[in-house]
């Protein structure tokens, strides 16, 4: 097989799994840095994937993996270590002669944001620019797949919760994010571009509940809770403290109506319309019933 010129991180996650499917379907060879050996059974079945078992904290392994790579896709989950891991990755990519980084960021990333996730993403973006690497920053809004966290509540209680009020959010399906990422990695014209990646419409959580009700053919209710109630629930679910704070800041940002903008990036980059929330529910129906 041809030597891979693309390296991806985050291949086992929400966006990464979909990105891997797209690269494989297009027969594009790629390297994937993954941490464990257990979670990547799917990757192992893909002939286009060269799997490198390494933690992104292992600078030596990352530097070695990046040799001969032209384009790298950078994604980690948002943890307290994310900023350092991503800054180090950018420096290593630059040192290895990588030409272009496609970085998964977040809608409204800004160094002055009150939301810690948006601040760290902006700092990583700015470092990539300072290094003079060609970049494509993918800034998705709230993932529709985030609603899968409520599947058991929707199934068992017919309701779901968030501290978000009546704010509209242009949530996006991760399949669309991966489609944009695949284009940025495999086609020209995305150099030094920032894509706000949103769904084609902004919907409130009350409207999401109506859509669940219609598609699942059972009553589903959205319950608006206080930030304190949400914080308690997220902490009880076992999230580390830094992430608990980040999620509450994120939802305050949504509740202020700051995530309602609808962008045309999915349509413009991929040539197809963004997946609607109704379609997302339809496609994951079995999980909510
Ligand atoms: N959720 C949302 O609504 C939303 C909205 C906008 C932007 N975002 C951004 O999206 C990103 C998360 O995307 P996602 O949901 O696709 O991610 P995810 O499902 O949480 O997966 C994270 C991936 O990063 C890998 N990873 C983490 N730390 C690593 C390390 N030290 N070494 C090697 N690999 C490591 C994980 O590997 P393992 O399998 O080994 O854990 C996994 O493949 C975050 O940056 C977040 O800010 C999220």
UniProtKB/TrEMBL annotation:
It comes from the Bacteria. Gene3D superfamilies: NAD(P)-binding Rossmann-like Domain, UDP-galactose 4-epimerase, domain 1. Residues 3-231 form the NmrA-like domain. It comes from Chitinophaga oryzae. PANTHER family: PRESTALK A DIFFERENTIATION PROTEIN A, PTHR43162. It holds the Pfam family NmrA. This is SDR family oxidoreductase. Coiled coil: none annotated.
């Amino acid at each position: 097989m041809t030597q891979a010129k693309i390296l991806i991180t985050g291949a086992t996650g929400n966006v990464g799994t979909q990105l891997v499917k797209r690269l494989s379907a297009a027969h594009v060879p790629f390297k994937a840095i993954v941490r464990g050996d257990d979670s990547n059974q799917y990757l192992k079945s893909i002939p286009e994937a060269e799997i490198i078992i390494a933690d992104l904290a292992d600078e030596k392994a990352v530097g070695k993996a990046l040799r001969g790579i032209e384009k790298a896709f950078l994604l980690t989950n948002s943890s307290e270590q994310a900023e350092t891991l991503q800054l180090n990755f950018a420096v290593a990519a630059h040192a290895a002669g990588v030409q272009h980084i496609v970085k998964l960021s977040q809608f409204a990333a800004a160094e002055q944001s009150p939301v810690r996730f948006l601040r760290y993403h902006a700092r990583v973006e700015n470092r990539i620019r300072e290094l003079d690497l060609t970049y494509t920053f993918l800034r998705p809004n709230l993932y529709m797949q985030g609603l899968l966290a409520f599947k058991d509540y929707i199934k068992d209680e017919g309701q779901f919760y968030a501290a978000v009020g009546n704010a509209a959010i242009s949530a996006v399906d991760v399949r669309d994010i991966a489609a944009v990422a695949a284009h940025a990695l495999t086609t020209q014209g995305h150099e030094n571009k920032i894509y706000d990646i949103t769904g084609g419409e902004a919907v409130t959580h009350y409207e999401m509940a109506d859509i669940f009700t219609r598609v699942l053919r059972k009553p589903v209710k959205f319950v608006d809770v206080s930030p304190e109630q949400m914080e308690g629930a997220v902490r009880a679910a076992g999230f580390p403290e830094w992430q608990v704070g980040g999620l509450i800041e994120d939802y305050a940002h949504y509740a202020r109506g700051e995530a309602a903008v609808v962008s045309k990036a999915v349509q413009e980059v991929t040539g197809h319309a963004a997946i609607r929330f109704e379609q997302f529910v339809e496609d994951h129906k079995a999980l909510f019933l």
